[in-house]
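Hello again, I could really use a second opinion on something today. My current little project is about how a certain protein chain folds up. You're getting the sequence in one-letter code plus the fold written as C-alpha coordinates. Here's the protein in full, and shout if anything looks odd to you:
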Amino acid sequence: MVTTARNTTIALAVTTCFLSACFSIAPGEGQIECLADADCPPGWICNVDGDHQCYSDASEFPGTDTDSDADSDTDSDTDSDTDSDTDSDTDSDTDPIECTGTIVDFDFESGDQGFGHGALGSAADPWERGDPGDETCSSGSSCWATNLGGNYARCLDAELVSPVINLSECASASATVMLRFMHYYIFQPVDVSIWRDGGTLQFSSNGGSTWQDVVPSPGYEGEIDGNYTGPCGDTSPTLANHDGWSGTISGDAWTEVSVEIGNLFKTDEFRFRFLFASDRVGEETGWFIDDIGLYAE
Protein backbone atom coordinates (compact mmCIF):
# COMPACT_ATOMS: atom_id res chain seq x y z
CA MET A 1 0.00 0.00 0.00
CA VAL A 2 1.39 3.37 -0.95
CA THR A 3 1.19 6.05 1.72
CA THR A 4 1.90 9.68 1.17
CA ALA A 5 2.12 12.73 3.35
CA ARG A 6 1.56 15.71 1.09
CA ASN A 7 1.91 19.21 2.47
CA THR A 8 -0.56 21.30 0.53
CA THR A 9 0.85 24.54 1.91
CA ILE A 10 4.38 24.22 0.57
CA ALA A 11 7.47 25.91 1.91
CA LEU A 12 7.42 28.28 -1.03
CA ALA A 13 4.51 30.23 0.40
CA VAL A 14 4.78 32.81 -2.35
CA THR A 15 5.90 31.75 -5.80
CA THR A 16 6.73 34.41 -8.32
CA CYS A 17 8.09 33.78 -11.73
CA PHE A 18 11.82 33.86 -10.77
CA LEU A 19 11.81 29.98 -10.92
CA SER A 20 11.11 29.96 -15.91
CA ALA A 21 12.86 31.73 -13.89
CA CYS A 22 10.30 31.50 -11.02
CA PHE A 23 11.21 31.93 -7.39
CA SER A 24 10.05 31.08 -3.90
CA ILE A 25 10.01 33.17 -0.77
CA ALA A 26 10.46 31.60 2.65
CA PRO A 27 7.16 31.12 4.53
CA GLY A 28 6.14 33.08 7.59
CA GLU A 29 4.37 32.11 10.77
CA GLY A 30 1.41 29.78 10.24
CA GLN A 31 2.05 29.11 6.55
CA ILE A 32 3.15 25.43 6.62
CA GLU A 33 0.63 22.70 7.51
CA CYS A 34 1.84 20.07 9.98
CA LEU A 35 0.86 17.12 12.14
CA ALA A 36 4.03 17.14 14.27
CA ASP A 37 7.19 19.20 14.85
CA ALA A 38 9.00 17.02 12.29
CA ASP A 39 6.84 18.52 9.52
CA CYS A 40 8.25 21.99 10.28
CA PRO A 41 11.57 23.68 9.42
CA PRO A 42 14.43 23.00 11.88
CA GLY A 43 13.82 24.73 15.21
CA TRP A 44 10.11 25.45 14.51
CA ILE A 45 7.17 23.75 16.25
CA CYS A 46 3.75 22.52 15.17
CA ASN A 47 0.60 23.90 16.78
CA VAL A 48 -0.82 20.38 17.22
CA ASP A 49 -3.58 21.52 19.57
CA GLY A 50 -4.62 24.41 17.35
CA ASP A 51 -4.51 25.20 13.65
CA HIS A 52 -1.87 22.57 12.74
CA GLN A 53 0.51 25.16 11.28
CA CYS A 54 4.25 25.70 11.89
CA TYR A 55 5.52 28.56 14.10
CA SER A 56 8.97 29.68 15.24
CA ASP A 57 7.82 29.69 18.89
CA ALA A 58 4.72 28.73 20.91
CA SER A 59 4.18 32.41 21.68
CA GLU A 60 3.31 32.87 17.98
CA PHE A 61 0.36 30.44 18.17
CA PRO A 62 -2.99 32.17 17.39
CA GLY A 63 -4.68 33.35 20.57
CA THR A 64 -1.45 33.50 22.63
CA ASP A 65 -0.60 37.19 22.09
CA THR A 66 -0.17 38.42 25.66
CA ASP A 67 0.51 41.96 24.48
CA SER A 68 -2.89 42.61 22.91
CA ASP A 69 -4.22 44.79 25.76
CA ALA A 70 -1.01 46.77 25.95
CA ASP A 71 -1.00 47.29 22.20
CA SER A 72 -4.53 48.68 22.24
CA ASP A 73 -3.53 51.28 24.84
CA THR A 74 -0.43 52.49 23.04
CA ASP A 75 -0.01 55.07 20.33
CA SER A 76 -1.15 53.88 16.90
CA ASP A 77 2.20 54.84 15.33
CA THR A 78 4.03 52.63 17.84
CA ASP A 79 1.70 49.71 17.06
CA SER A 80 2.34 50.03 13.36
CA ASP A 81 6.13 50.14 13.70
CA THR A 82 6.25 47.23 16.13
CA ASP A 83 3.99 44.98 14.05
CA SER A 84 5.81 45.57 10.78
CA ASP A 85 9.25 44.95 12.34
CA THR A 86 8.11 41.73 14.01
CA ASP A 87 6.50 40.31 10.86
CA SER A 88 9.50 41.16 8.69
CA ASP A 89 12.02 39.55 11.05
CA THR A 90 9.92 36.42 11.58
CA ASP A 91 9.44 35.82 7.87
CA SER A 92 13.13 35.98 7.00
CA ASP A 93 15.15 34.89 10.03
CA THR A 94 16.02 31.47 11.45
CA ASP A 95 18.23 30.70 14.42
CA PRO A 96 21.92 30.18 13.60
CA ILE A 97 22.99 26.52 13.64
CA GLU A 98 26.25 25.55 15.32
CA CYS A 99 28.81 24.81 12.62
CA THR A 100 30.19 21.51 13.89
CA GLY A 101 29.59 17.83 13.13
CA THR A 102 26.11 17.10 11.81
CA ILE A 103 24.59 20.53 11.27
CA VAL A 104 21.15 19.25 10.30
CA ASP A 105 19.79 16.05 8.81
CA PHE A 106 16.53 14.87 7.27
CA ASP A 107 15.35 11.25 7.02
CA PHE A 108 11.66 12.04 6.26
CA GLU A 109 10.33 9.16 8.36
CA SER A 110 8.12 11.36 10.55
CA GLY A 111 7.20 14.18 8.19
CA ASP A 112 8.23 16.58 5.43
CA GLN A 113 10.63 18.33 7.87
CA GLY A 114 10.03 21.74 6.32
CA PHE A 115 10.60 20.71 2.70
CA GLY A 116 8.21 22.13 0.13
CA HIS A 117 7.42 21.22 -3.46
CA GLY A 118 5.47 22.60 -6.37
CA ALA A 119 4.99 22.88 -10.10
CA LEU A 120 6.91 25.55 -11.99
CA GLY A 121 6.13 25.74 -15.71
CA SER A 122 3.81 22.72 -15.72
CA ALA A 123 0.31 22.31 -14.36
CA ALA A 124 1.11 19.25 -12.24
CA ASP A 125 3.44 18.74 -9.27
CA PRO A 126 4.72 15.13 -9.13
CA TRP A 127 6.69 15.29 -5.86
CA GLU A 128 5.41 13.06 -3.04
CA ARG A 129 6.82 11.84 0.27
CA GLY A 130 6.09 8.34 1.53
CA ASP A 131 6.54 4.66 0.78
CA PRO A 132 7.47 4.18 -2.90
CA GLY A 133 5.79 0.79 -3.11
CA ASP A 134 7.62 -1.33 -5.68
CA GLU A 135 10.85 0.60 -5.05
CA THR A 136 12.68 1.00 -1.73
CA CYS A 137 13.96 4.07 0.12
CA SER A 138 17.62 4.46 0.99
CA SER A 139 16.67 3.87 4.62
CA GLY A 140 13.40 3.41 6.45
CA SER A 141 10.10 3.44 4.61
CA SER A 142 9.66 7.09 3.63
CA CYS A 143 11.47 9.21 1.02
CA TRP A 144 10.72 11.74 -1.71
CA ALA A 145 9.79 10.58 -5.22
CA THR A 146 8.51 12.04 -8.47
CA ASN A 147 5.74 9.45 -8.25
CA LEU A 148 5.28 7.01 -5.38
CA GLY A 149 2.88 4.77 -7.28
CA GLY A 150 4.33 4.38 -10.76
CA ASN A 151 6.05 6.20 -13.60
CA TYR A 152 6.18 9.99 -13.71
CA ALA A 153 4.02 11.76 -16.29
CA ARG A 154 5.05 13.75 -19.35
CA CYS A 155 5.40 17.53 -19.59
CA LEU A 156 6.44 18.11 -15.96
CA ASP A 157 8.46 21.00 -14.52
CA ALA A 158 8.68 20.97 -10.71
CA GLU A 159 10.89 21.51 -7.67
CA LEU A 160 11.54 20.01 -4.24
CA VAL A 161 12.86 22.76 -1.93
CA SER A 162 14.58 22.67 1.45
CA PRO A 163 13.56 24.91 4.34
CA VAL A 164 15.68 28.00 5.02
CA ILE A 165 18.80 26.96 6.97
CA ASN A 166 20.87 29.54 8.87
CA LEU A 167 24.54 28.80 8.08
CA SER A 168 25.85 32.17 9.22
CA GLU A 169 27.86 30.50 12.01
CA CYS A 170 29.81 28.66 9.30
CA ALA A 171 30.92 31.86 7.54
CA SER A 172 33.84 32.37 9.92
CA ALA A 173 34.44 28.70 10.76
CA SER A 174 37.41 26.79 9.40
CA ALA A 175 35.40 23.63 8.74
CA THR A 176 34.40 22.51 5.26
CA VAL A 177 30.61 22.34 5.00
CA MET A 178 29.17 19.55 2.86
CA LEU A 179 25.68 18.69 1.65
CA ARG A 180 25.20 14.94 1.27
CA PHE A 181 22.15 12.94 0.20
CA MET A 182 21.15 9.58 -1.22
CA HIS A 183 19.30 9.27 -4.52
CA TYR A 184 18.22 6.78 -7.15
CA TYR A 185 16.82 7.51 -10.59
CA ILE A 186 15.61 5.99 -13.83
CA PHE A 187 14.84 8.70 -16.38
CA GLN A 188 14.15 8.43 -20.10
CA PRO A 189 17.23 6.93 -21.86
CA VAL A 190 19.55 9.08 -23.92
CA ASP A 191 18.20 9.64 -27.44
CA VAL A 192 20.95 10.08 -30.05
CA SER A 193 23.15 12.02 -27.58
CA ILE A 194 20.19 14.05 -26.30
CA TRP A 195 19.31 13.84 -22.61
CA ARG A 196 15.58 14.45 -22.33
CA ASP A 197 14.14 13.95 -18.80
CA GLY A 198 16.24 14.51 -15.69
CA GLY A 199 17.05 16.39 -12.51
CA THR A 200 19.59 18.82 -11.09
CA LEU A 201 20.63 20.45 -7.79
CA GLN A 202 20.77 24.20 -7.10
CA PHE A 203 21.75 26.41 -4.12
CA SER A 204 20.40 29.77 -2.96
CA SER A 205 22.04 32.25 -0.58
CA ASN A 206 18.95 34.45 -0.21
CA GLY A 207 16.06 32.17 0.70
CA GLY A 208 15.22 31.31 -2.90
CA SER A 209 15.18 34.72 -4.55
CA THR A 210 17.92 33.52 -6.90
CA TRP A 211 19.38 30.08 -7.61
CA GLN A 212 22.74 28.82 -8.84
CA ASP A 213 23.78 25.48 -10.36
CA VAL A 214 26.33 23.50 -8.35
CA VAL A 215 28.73 20.72 -9.28
CA PRO A 216 28.00 17.53 -7.30
CA SER A 217 29.93 14.27 -7.06
CA PRO A 218 29.07 11.93 -8.73
CA GLY A 219 28.37 14.42 -11.49
CA TYR A 220 25.74 14.81 -14.17
CA GLU A 221 25.26 12.85 -17.38
CA GLY A 222 24.91 15.95 -19.53
CA GLU A 223 22.75 18.90 -20.59
CA ILE A 224 18.99 18.37 -20.38
CA ASP A 225 17.26 19.17 -23.67
CA GLY A 226 13.77 19.79 -22.31
CA ASN A 227 11.79 19.55 -25.57
CA TYR A 228 8.34 20.83 -24.62
CA THR A 229 6.95 21.30 -28.12
CA GLY A 230 3.59 19.98 -29.22
CA PRO A 231 1.58 18.41 -26.38
CA CYS A 232 3.52 20.32 -23.71
CA GLY A 233 2.36 23.65 -25.07
CA ASP A 234 5.63 24.76 -26.68
CA THR A 235 7.05 25.91 -23.34
CA SER A 236 10.51 25.29 -21.92
CA PRO A 237 11.05 23.75 -18.44
CA THR A 238 13.21 25.44 -15.83
CA LEU A 239 15.71 22.59 -16.17
CA ALA A 240 16.17 23.01 -19.96
CA ASN A 241 19.79 23.64 -21.02
CA HIS A 242 21.10 22.95 -17.50
CA ASP A 243 23.39 20.01 -16.74
CA GLY A 244 21.55 17.25 -14.93
CA TRP A 245 21.26 13.61 -13.97
CA SER A 246 19.54 11.59 -16.70
CA GLY A 247 19.18 8.05 -18.02
CA THR A 248 19.66 5.35 -15.34
CA ILE A 249 21.90 5.93 -12.31
CA SER A 250 25.29 4.22 -12.54
CA GLY A 251 25.17 0.77 -10.94
CA ASP A 252 21.36 0.90 -10.85
CA ALA A 253 21.50 1.44 -7.06
CA TRP A 254 21.05 4.12 -4.41
CA THR A 255 24.11 6.39 -4.48
CA GLU A 256 25.43 9.08 -2.13
CA VAL A 257 25.94 12.52 -3.65
CA SER A 258 28.12 15.18 -2.02
CA VAL A 259 28.78 18.83 -2.81
CA GLU A 260 30.70 21.47 -0.88
CA ILE A 261 28.77 24.52 0.32
CA GLY A 262 31.01 27.47 -0.55
CA ASN A 263 31.36 30.70 1.40
CA LEU A 264 28.86 32.42 -0.90
CA PHE A 265 26.10 30.25 0.55
CA LYS A 266 27.07 30.38 4.24
CA THR A 267 24.31 32.87 5.00
CA ASP A 268 21.27 33.00 7.25
CA GLU A 269 19.05 32.19 4.25
CA PHE A 270 20.66 29.12 2.68
CA ARG A 271 18.36 26.80 0.72
CA PHE A 272 18.80 24.06 -1.84
CA ARG A 273 16.39 22.56 -4.34
CA PHE A 274 16.02 19.60 -6.67
CA LEU A 275 14.69 20.51 -10.13
CA PHE A 276 12.90 17.85 -12.19
CA ALA A 277 11.56 17.94 -15.75
CA SER A 278 10.07 15.46 -18.21
CA ASP A 279 9.44 16.19 -21.89
CA ARG A 280 6.68 15.35 -24.38
CA VAL A 281 7.58 11.68 -24.94
CA GLY A 282 8.40 8.76 -22.66
CA GLU A 283 7.61 7.97 -19.03
CA GLU A 284 9.92 6.23 -16.57
CA THR A 285 10.31 5.18 -12.92
CA GLY A 286 11.60 8.59 -11.83
CA TRP A 287 13.75 10.16 -9.10
CA PHE A 288 13.95 9.16 -5.42
CA ILE A 289 15.71 11.25 -2.72
CA ASP A 290 16.41 10.34 0.92
CA ASP A 291 18.72 10.88 3.91
CA ILE A 292 19.82 14.47 3.35
CA GLY A 293 22.34 16.06 5.70
CA LEU A 294 24.64 19.07 6.13
CA TYR A 295 27.96 18.36 7.80
CA ALA A 296 30.89 20.44 9.04
CA GLU A 297 34.09 18.46 8.49
